Structure prediction request, 194 residues.
Amino acid sequence: MTEYKQDKVLDHEYDGIREYDNRLPNWWLYTLYGAVVFAVCYWFAFQRTELGKLPRERWKADVAEAAEAQLAKMGDQETTDESLTLMSTIPTQVDGGRKIFEQFCVVCHGPDGSGVVGPNLTDGYWLHGGRPLQILNTVTNGVPDKGMVAWGNQLGPVRIRSVVAYVLSIKNTNRPGKEPQGDPETPAGEEKSE
Prediction:
């Protein structure tokens, strides 16, 4: 049988209130220690070893999976601004486009798209339109009078759409590079006022 200990009153007093020196109950201490151990294990597993995915990473994966499913439902329908924008949210599409970009486009646009001879693709200014279908048209047909090669026959429609998805993913990231050229992009449905 455990011996009952009389509560001990501490010597200090504040506004007529005196404090007891009570030992915390074991269940409370076990809860505290358990929470500390759990927090350290959680931090180690998710932040240091990456054994699990953080909620933001799981959300990004879910969004990419939903975009892939939506793109698959669209099937062989005509390419639209929406389908190209959807492609730019799928990491595998963007990564494939980045590889093609690095192989064919870096000479003129630089490795990060910030422009060398060709324009900066990361700002909000576009010479031939910045909407997805306008970018697709520029890549496919080129701009011979400005030195832009038509890539349609060399890359084919699937690889061109991947490159456009990559360009859309770096668009408006405003990386330092070549000065803006062309006109600011106008949202779909709005015409430029002159």
